[in-house]
Amino acid sequence: MSISNSDELLAYLASNGIAAPTIDHPAVHTVEESRTMRGEIVGVHTKNLFLRDGKKNFFLFVTDEDAPIELKKLAKKIGARGGLSFGSPDALLEYLSITPGAVSLLAAVNDTGQKVKIVLDQALREAQTINCHPLTNTRTTSLSQDALVAFMRLIGREPVYVSLDDETAP
Fold this sequence. Notes:
The protein contains 5 helices and 8 strands; from the N terminus they run H-E-H-E-E-H-E-H-E-E-E-H-E. The chain has helices at about 5-15, 30-35, 70-80, 90-95, 145-155, and strands at about 20-25, 45-50, 60-65, 85, 115-120, 130, 140-145, 160. The chain is globular.
């Protein structure tokens, strides 16, 4: 199954009983643009990093938009082999069926072969609502913790969390 657009994704979530309130807005390409365009959407707004390691393993790391990221430390926490770099737009399209600017947890719906390891920042567990793009950067979808877990299970995954604050273990 491949979901090609936001409307299909939202219909898929609704048909599976996952509440996903969504707001339309002008296209945003950066966290800074998102801040100016989103209005009064409550909850944590996410930053999503599509990464690859030295062995060509791919990762999607999802965190709070304000979280500082040190790729060297993150590599150890997420089990990367070799250094991390950003995945190419071609790999993003191949594995998650999206383009840069629309990267989000919800794109994992298209990773049916589970080639991309999905990792969430432990800090997101504390958020009542997590906001992300539904395959387009012209919408923002809000997910409760229950909706997030239900989505992950629907696509055959369990949420994997790492702490950016913990200096020791992943």
